[in-house]
Amino acid sequence: MRFLLVCEDNSDTPLAAHIQRLLETFGHRQVAFDTSTYGRQLVDKVRNGLKLAPHYDLLFVHRDSDNARPEARYGEITIAVQDAPFDGPWVGIVPVRTTEAWLLLDETAIRKAIRKPNARGPLTLPTPSEIDRRADPGEILATALLDASETRGRRREDTRRDLPSLRRYLLENLPVGGPLEQLPSWVRFRDDTVAALQALS
After folding, report:
1. Rounded to an integer, what distance in angstroms lies between the CA atom of residue 188 and that of residue 18?
2. Can you give the pTM of this predicted structure?
3. pLDDT in tens, 96-124
4. What is the extent of the structural domain holding 109?
5. Closest-CA residue to 100 (of 59, 134, 151)
């Protein structure tokens, strides 16, 4: 199986590894993928991505909801896929509000990313029921990583500079299921993936 993941920018392309693991849990043991972010408009990103290989079994299109309603983002994705065009099964991925929201459920993973798995300093993380209502998941994640580092002064600034790579590590290693089952945006993504696989078969 080969899939294409279209993202808003390069910071979310590590989500492809998560999709690969999800497909493997459904029995697809040989999964390859490409990612695409090139283009100004979403339809351009999809079109440019589809040029990377002669055939894709599945198309995934990521779009953060930001301050818009998730349904509005799903509508944008639908139009982009139709205009590209892509005739196969596809899945929209719309975290609320940004992808960082999916990274706030696992305190152990955050401590592991910062290489202090045994630290016990408090991290102010929202509960699953609060996450979709928070406007600043990126800032919450950054604060949690800095607090987990338990550093001060220059070392804390070094950690701050490493935040993009730490975020990438967390996204690349985002597990399937578990705490994510408590987020409606992820559950919809999973269920839509199941439906796309059924359409493919």
Report:
1. 15
2. 0.93
3. 989 999 999 999 999 999 988 887 778 88
4. 100-172
5. 134
